[in-house]
Amino acid sequence: MTEKIVIATRESRLALWQAEHVKALLEDKLQAQVELLGMTTRGDQILDRTLSKVGGKGLFVKELETALAEGRARLAVHSLKDVPMDLPEGFALVAILEREDPRDAFVSNRYENFEALPQGALVGTSSLRRVVQLKNLRPDLRIEPLRGNLDTRLRKLDEGGYDAIVLAAAGLMRLGLAERIRSRFDVEQMIPCAGQGALGLEIRADDAALQQHLAGLIDTPTWLATQAERAVSRALGGSCSMPLAAHGRWHGEQLTLQVALGHPEENAKPLLKQTLQATVTQLDQALALGQQAAEALRALGAADYLAAT
Ligand SMILES: NCc1[nH]cc(CCC(=O)O)c1CC(=O)O
């Protein structure tokens, strides 16, 4: 590519790392000239409040999309799990890159792993998905919200506010903070969020030239697995205030999709869980598996749970 590509990015350390990572890939694989355009989003301004209460995931992507629409940038790099299930008209998610560690991490200055936490310990975490699964594993624990970017969350732990915190391993690893991870949850025990650990590239839907260039960066196994995961969320209504987990794992061409849905009111109802498997080699099969998983959750009574979110 001869033209310069401008990447619109949030200015958190994690977002900048991700944008730099994609910049290096584009320079290396496409011999492109790339520049970053840093922006503060509405989501960043209110990072200390529970996002689901103030408008949800879209808050992190809207300003970036405006920059794309106005031609100030051509590409936006997102943590896939922060991207709404359906993008606004005029935008497209054209590439999903190879996934890093999708697991949730246990971070503590006092305890080696989740099992070592004493009765009644105080755990900080930032998503309803983690809250409902932690409560399900250990009803004795006290779970408190923990917001802010990764550095803020670690600082709150270090100030002694919590016995342990739980957050995505991928974010810590990207920021060079892997040594803070005391242990990782098995994905069966703490099912990750749809798309966790993967990066998604968004462009204007009419930018066919760039779409073609970016196609070379797609990691097909990650793309298919995360499409199945996101299909579960879409089929259940797609709200980010929903305590929903969805994670796909490969064994050859077999995709095993594990899903869990919790009730948003603490202790109100048991966690609903399902595991489905299918041969998946193309998009329609991935989407069908995701839809089946959503139906399986509905068969367990998901409607009551969704009505409460
Ligand atoms: N919701 C914030 C967010 N968005 C992406 C990551 C980490 C990287 C990833 O999961 O891909 C995080 C931090 C976290 O959930 O602990």
UniProtKB/TrEMBL annotation:
Pfam families for the chain: Porphobil_deam, Porphobil_deamC
Cofactor(s) of this protein: dipyrromethane
Residues in Porphobilinogen deaminase C-terminal domain copies: 224-298
CDD domains: PBP2_EcHMBS_like
InterPro entries reported for this sequence: HemC, Porphobilin_deaminase_N, Porphobilinogen_deaminase_C, Porphobilinogen_deaminase_C_sf
Modified positions (S-(dipyrrolylmethanemethyl)cysteine) in chain numbering: C240
Recorded GO MF terms: hydroxymethylbilane synthase activity
Domain Porphobilinogen deaminase N-terminal: 5-211
Pathway note: Porphyrin-containing compound metabolism; protoporphyrin-IX biosynthesis; coproporphyrinogen-III from 5-aminolevulinate: step 2/4
Cofactor-binding details, from the entry: Binds 1 dipyrromethane group covalently.
Catalytic reaction annotation: 4 porphobilinogen + H2O = hydroxymethylbilane + 4 NH4(+)
EC number: 2.5.1.61
Domain of life assignment: Bacteria
Keyword terms of this UniProt record: Porphyrin biosynthesis, Transferase
Miscellaneous notes: The porphobilinogen subunits are added to the dipyrromethane group.
Assembly: Monomer.
Entry similarity comment: Belongs to the HMBS family.
NCBIfam families noted in UniProt: hemC
Role, per record: Tetrapolymerization of the monopyrrole PBG into the hydroxymethylbilane pre-uroporphyrinogen in several discrete steps.
Protein's recorded name: Porphobilinogen deaminase
Gene coding for it: hemC
